[in-house]
Amino acid sequence: MLQVEALEKSFDGFMAVNGATLKVERGDVVAVIGPNGAGKTTLFNLITGQLPPTAGAIWFKKENIAGLAPHRVCRKGISRSYQVVNIFNRLTLFENVQVAVLSRRRKTFDLFRPAKTIAVDETRRILDSVGLLDKWAMTSGALSHGDQKVLEIAIALGNRPELLILDEPTAGMSPEETAVTLRLMKRLSGELGLTILFCEHDMGMVFSIATQIMVMQQGRTIIQGPPDEVRNNQQVRDAYLGGADECSA
Ligand SMILES: Nc1ncnc2c1ncn2[C@@H]1O[C@H](COP(=O)(O)OP(=O)(O)OP(=O)(O)O)[C@@H](O)[C@H]1O
């Protein structure tokens, strides 16, 4: 579904991404791991069009999408959430998701129809699928940090993506919130059949959900493979995991 080849991104001569490769098959849950500054977020920004690559190719469903603008990448079927929560704080949960659904349908609010009656079923269905339906009328800024990150996933689902990209979905979460997010991601990939690409520092989370793990260091891909292969790779242990125990979750 997605294949990244020899991807490069230079910031004034500094190679943040330096020949990275990545393969995502339909139905996979792929984790990108690596130390701080390895280039994970930059890689995601390149895939979703927030940054243009310096070199390389990004094949999505057999089309090279490298350098396409974010809204065009989104229309191709790739949605993402961010490391830092990105929602409209003063809107309700319903309104936040409704805006995303309308944007996909290329509709805006019309003067003659009350906003509350537009795209109601789909918006409610999405909120239900992430477990936030009971809070639909709340102001989004009043949600807990964990629920705000889940709302971001709901907003991304408004685009009906085939590939969902999540940048540190559990960053700043309590252990309980992390467990909820983990369950949600399992449901999205299982019941809804979504393909998921995410980066994450919590190794317990990574090793309990990922079907494939890609390890990045200094902008390069060290290895990509199933969790067991990555766990047992000596280069990964030496370069990143720093010992035998950290990835044994
Ligand atoms: N816009 C930019 N201008 C200059 N340097 C940048 C820019 N964005 C990222 N970098 C640098 O590129 C490198 C990779 O950063 P990136 O945020 O992609 O790493 P990361 O693996 O996501 O790190 P973390 O795990 O801490 O989020 C870092 O050294 C960072 O300082």
TrEMBL record:
Keywords linked to the UniProt accession: ATP-binding, Nucleotide-binding, Transport
GO biological-process terms attached to the record: D-alanine transmembrane transport; L-alanine transport; L-isoleucine import across plasma membrane; L-valine import across plasma membrane
Domain ABC transporter: 2-243
Transmembrane segments: none
InterPro entries in alphabetical order: AAA+_ATPase, ABC_AA/LPS_Transport, ABC_transporter-like_ATP-bd, ABC_transporter-like_CS, BCA_ABC_TP_C, P-loop_NTPase
CDD domains: ABC_Mj1267_LivG_branched
GO MF annotation list: ATP binding; ATP hydrolysis activity; L-isoleucine transmembrane transporter activity; L-phenylalanine transmembrane transporter activity; L-valine transmembrane transporter activity
Pfam families for this protein: ABC_tran (PF00005), BCA_ABC_TP_C (PF12399)
Cellular component terms (Gene Ontology): plasma membrane
Domain of life, source organism: Bacteria
Protein name per its UniProtKB record: ABC transporter ATP-binding protein
